[in-house]
Amino acid sequence: MKIAYGYDIEIECANETPVIALVDIHPTRRGDICRNDIPVIRSLSFPDRDISSELYQDKFGNLCRRFVAPAGRLSLCASGLISDSGMPDGCDTDAAMVRIEDLPSDVLEFTLGSRYCETDILSEQAWARFGRPDLGWWTVQAICDYVHDHITFDYLQARSTRSAAEGLRERIGVCRDFAHLAITLCRCLNIPARYCTGYLGDIGVPADPNPMDFSAWFEAYLDGRWWTFDARHNQPRIGRIVIARGRDATDVPILNSYGPHVLRRFDILTQEMASNADVPPSPLMNTFVQLS
Fold it and tell me: How far apart are CA 154 and CA 259, in angstroms?
C-alpha cells in the first residue's frame, strides 16, 4: 500500500532565530519513500530571501534539519509518498525480557530515568503492580492496558512540561503522556523502552474527528529486538511512519528554536492512497501534493 504524508507548519519569530527541526522521515524508512519529500522552507515576511538548511544525524540516528529563521513569519512544508506493508504492528507474546547483563551497550540508556520519565518516583509503584518473575511481552501489554485505562485523552489538556508522574496523578493528557508513563513503568522493571514520534493515520480504524497531528508511541526491547507498543490506542495499528526515536520527548521535538517563536499554523496529512475512487481525498491533499 502507499501512504501520502506531509506537513504545513508556520511559525513567527520576533528576531532572527536558529531552529532545529525533526520532520524528516527516519533513515530506517527512507528506502520506502516513493516520492520526493524535501522540505520547502520560505520566509513569508521576506519572500525574496533564500533559506538554506543543513541535515545531520543525532546520537539516536534521527535526521535533524537546522536553519536560521529570519524575523517574521516562516513556512516549513513537505509532502511525500511512502510504500508500506499494510500489516499491523508486530506481536510475539512469547518474547521475554532480556537480562540487564545481556543487553547491548547501546540499549542500556533506555533503562534509565530521563527528563519526562522519572523512574525514581514510580519504581515502587511499578514493582507493586507489575512485578513478577517472568517479565516479558505480557508485562508490557499489561502496562499499556493500565495506562490506556488510567489516562483520558484530551487535546485541550496538552502541556509540554507534563511528566510521567504528573500524568499518572492528573489522569489526563495527549499521546506523548501515554507514551511517557508506559515507558517509565517499563524502565522501572528494567525493560528497555524508547520514545517514538511520527505519522499515524486512521488506516483500518474509524476516522478520528480531532485534527490530525504527529503521533507518539513507544518501543520495548524484548528477546533481542525492539517491538512497537501504543498505550494511547492500545491496539495494533497499520501505517506507522517513524520520524524520530529517543529517550523521551526531550530528544525529538518537532521544532527546537534558540529563541521564542509562535506557532501560527500546524497542518498534518497522513492518508492511504486508495485506487478506489469512492474514497474521498483529504481536503489538505491538493495543498500538499503541489509541493512535490
Answer: 28
Measured CA to CA, the distance from residue 42 to residue 13 in angstroms comes to 13
pLDDT in tens, 92-118: 999 999 999 999 999 999 999 999 999
Residue 38 lies in a domain: yes
Per the structure block, which three cell numbers stand in for 72? Answer: 517574521
User: What CATH number does the domain containing 197 carry?
Assistant: 3.10.620.30
Residues in the chain: 292
- Quick check: is 126 in a domain? yes
Query: Which amino acid is present at 109?
Result: E
- Mean pLDDT, to the nearest integer, of 205-226? 93
Residue 104 sits in the same domain as residue 201: yes
Say whether both 177 and 212 belong to one domain: yes
Instruction: Return the CATH number at 64.
Output: 2.60.40.2250
Q: Which domain holds residue 185?
A: 100-238
Question: What is the identity of the amino acid at 55?
Answer: L
Mean pLDDT in residue range 138-155 = 97
Q: The whole model's pTM is what?
A: 0.93
